[in-house]
Amino acid sequence: MKQYIKIEISQLLGILLIFSTIGYLTKQPYIAMGLSLIAYFAKHAYYLTRLASLIDSESQISPPYPPDIWGLIYKELARHRMRSRKRKRTLNRFASRFRKVATSIPDGLLILSKPGSLEWANPAANQLLNISWPRDEGVPVEQLLHLEGLREYLEAPDYQKPLEFPSPVNRAIILSLRVAPFGSKKAQRLLVVRNITELYNLNQTRRDFVSNVSHELRTPLTVISGFLENLSDNQMLEFQKRPFLLMLQQAERMNTIINDLLALSRLEMGKAPSSEKPVFVAELLNKIVDQARALADQKGEYDITLDADDELCVVGEESELLSAFSNLIYNAIIHTPTKTKISVNWRRQEKTACFSVSDTGPGIEQHAIPRLTERFYRVDKARSRQSGGTGLGLAIVKHIIGRHDGELRISSQPGVGSRFDCTFPEEMVIEKSQLQPQQTSKC
Fold first, then answer.
1. How do residues 299-311 score in pLDDT, each as one tens digit?
2. Pair (212, 331) in one structural domain
3. DSSP of 151-219, one letter per residue?
């Protein structure tokens, strides 16, 4: 840069010297000075005009470059234009690759603008939703997909749960819609629509099978249990009592499993609970903890404490919440040794509300925590069978909390204890003071 400045100054001094000499010889110094300035600015005007022409034409700038500061400008412009061409070629290759990938993806992809109108869609979107780009470009997605609750789903703060619906092209095809925000401030949204018909039918078949088998097993099991109870009540020899007692215990355990399977099946197939019924959780927990203390007294000595906000209610189904909360509290007693401290809490956390059960038991290994809510999964199978566990309790809890738009979180550390948190969103939480008198009496 300094080199070009020196050249520019030397050129200016050279022009001034030449025209000063001419002015001295012609005895017209002012005219000569004016002509020198005109010559100097004419040179810059020429290079400036040429530069404007090169920029406007976007033609390639090639050497030779002017030796002064304009040469530096031309070189930098040529280098910038070369880099721009390379980036453009790279972007074109990337765009071409993206179009090929997007065309080959079997899932429907839709890009929405901030107002919610269609900006782009891949060919699969036309096959699954009858939405074609560029035909439907600029049309609001609510006009293209006539789905109940679509606007509320798109305006939701998070998109953890997919939206499932039959395809408008073929009602036999079940689709799953997920949203991925992107762009500046996550203003744009990518809609991914997937064909889940096979998975949906498999899940429906599984639910129907579990429900039907459970119903079919209940009747013969009731008959077997009845006969076993009658036989165990009769006088019999000592060596005969133990087999009958074991058969009766296993029949009762099988009956518990069937009841849990039916409850889980009802939760999976049922609609979300009504949000018009307030549940006074503190009163509910007092009843559960009283019963839990009675259960704990039969097993041994436990330190069970309850800290619940009396004013905090949640809207939903009381019977389902009773099942979920009691499952977690009873599990803390059943799966921990005596002398364990168990804390039950119901408190507000900023705008949400959280029900938690923590214990100082043996804890759970980290690798087992993600699988705790799976059906029939047991960390210690031998101990679970001895305690009468079915392996369905936490699966039921997860479904109930999910049906109330909540989230179940599990944390544990071996040798320290475990903690189960059920967090309910702001829209499901209400203060008792906000309820009408007739609602308060129902609480």
1. 788 899 999 999 8
2. no
3. HHHHTSS---SPEEEE-SS-TTSEEEEEEEEESGGG-EEEEEEEE-HHHHHHHHHHHHHHHHHHHHHHH
